[in-house]
Amino acid sequence: MTADKTRLGALMAEAVEFSVRHVESGGIPFVGLLVADDGWVSDLGVNLVRETGDPTAHAEVMAIRKAVQARDRSSLEGVTLLATGEPCALCYRVAASHGIAAVRFAVDRDTAAAWGFDYRAGYETNRLPLAITARHLAVERSLVPFTRYRDLHRSDFTTHS
């Protein structure tokens, strides 16, 4: 993917702001979208695992499902996946199986874990990394969806001594 870094940064910033709104409406702080070299941008995907009971309804998978339908093909070769939180092992595998070779994320797995979303064990179990270039894409306010989630669910984050 050779999309302009400025454009990717702007799209990631929009995804982060959408993530804040998603959290405020009851969701969790994960949003995904895809960007192609030809200018095409997918619809946003949000994590719907709790709402649907589908354990594969992660934000990135939902965005990939929408992209495959919109582009009328199963291959998304040459497309970059943007994610507000670093994808889990499942999402990396789904991305790789659809030809996505580049992933950019606003918040890495260790930071997500520090904010209560620890999915790092899946990487060891699923023997990552794959043939995907994954890099952090710094944007302002990247932690806001996570801090907003914590603020709204403060009782979930209290520690008992």
Automatic annotation (TrEMBL):
Domain CMP/dCMP-type deaminase: 6-126
GO function terms (MF aspect): guanosine deaminase activity
Residues annotated as transmembrane: none
GO BP: purine nucleoside catabolic process
Record-linked InterPro entries: CMP_dCMP_dom (IPR002125), Cytidine_deaminase-like (IPR016193)
UniProt-listed Pfam families: dCMP_cyt_deam_1
PROSITE patterns named among the record's database cross-references: CYT_DCMP_DEAMINASES_2 (PS51747)
Name of the protein in its database record: tRNA(Arg) A34 adenosine deaminase TadA
